[in-house]
Design brief:
single chain, about 300 residues, mainly alpha, 15 helices, 2 strands, about 60% helix, about 5% strand, flat
Length: about 300
């Protein structure tokens, strides 16, 4: 069905500066299910007296390569079941050295939902997209697009045709393995990470609360327009502040204003002045005078 991937001990041996025989011996022990500490302490002769650090490095690399092998076999089976596997595609999958490149190759063949580009292909717009992609000289794109206008295919005008063609081209660029690698390398070399401080709303609220507390301790409310209009009574023992508002100047003037005029509305609201009571001595004198006048008569 597919070509099996042979594990290359020589490549791993060169990377770890060991011999292929040493690498193969450790791999054989790992395949038997032996953990790294057991091999390092109880299988020294079988592991060619390699240190635990070296054995662990071999185990890590081997696990990665084994996972790659299993993933390649899974992709090849899926492509063969979908009847999409070709000799060239199979060779590119087997030659992939990294997981990133392997997934880039498989990206165009993964099962997925229909995209806008798929609908455009069903409407027969792919030939125009390929002619644009492979063009060696300039030509009138809008003129060619006008020939594909067909209301029955939901292509009522030239704009809808060009939109479908653009979707096909965008997908082809996204699936291009070499282009994706070049863009990735360009970003890795020239890309910049930019960070920006974001103000924390919780911190701002805590700052405003502390400001209000400071204002209260100082005896002046934060929203007071005129400090003269507020009086602070501070308890020296407890340190607590109690704020009492003094009457404003306008209210004081209104209370001290006398009610004048004959306006009944105004006079009805004003309280009548109380007459002063006569002095006790003056009242006694008046009573004695009246008594003497009655005797004379």
């Amino acid at each position: 069905m597919t070509e099996s991937v042979v594990f290359n001990c020589g490549f791993l041996a060169r990377e770890l500066k060991l011999t292929p025989e040493q690498v193969q011996k450790v791999i054989d022990l790992l395949e038997k299910g032996m953990p790294v500490p057991y091999i390092a302490h109880y299988q020294k002769d079988e592991a060619d007296d390699l240190s635990e650090e070296k054995i662990r490095a071999i185990a890590g690399k081997y696990a990665h390569i084994k996972a790659m092998f299993e993933r390649k076999q899974s992709i090849l089976r899926n492509l063969q079941n979908d009847q999409k596997l070709t000799p060239e595609l199979e060779r590119s999958i087997l030659d992939a050295r990294t997981e990133r490149r392997l997934e880039d190759i498989y990206l165009a063949y993964k099962p997925r939902k229909q995209t806008e580009a798929d609908f455009a292909r069903e409407k027969g717009l792919e030939p125009l997209a390929l002619s644009i992609l492979q063009a060696t000289e300039a030509f009138d794109i809008e003129k060619e697009a006008a020939l594909l206008v067909d209301p029955a295919k939901e292509l009522p005008d030239t704009e809808s045709v060009l939109k479908g063609v653009a979707a096909i081209l965008s997908e082809k660029f996204a699936w291009n393995v070499e282009l994706r690698q070049r863009i990735r390398e360009h970003i890795r070399r020239f890309g910049l990470f930019v960070s920006k401080k974001i103000e924390d709303p919780a911190a701002n609220s805590n700052t405003s609360k502390s400001a209000e507390e400071d204002q209260c301790k100082s005896g002046v409310p934060e929203n007071a327009e005129n400090p003269v209009n507020a009086a602070a009574e501070v308890n020296a023992e407890s340190g607590e502040s109690q704020i009492t508002e003094a009457p404003s100047a306008e209210n004081a003037d209104a209370e001290n204003t006398e009610v004048k005029g004959d306006d009944p509305a105004v006079s009805s609201t004003a309280e009548p002045e109380e007459k002063a009571a006569p002095e006790p001595e003056a009242a006694l004198d008046g009573a004695s005078d009246e008594k003497s006048e009655s005797v004379k008569s």
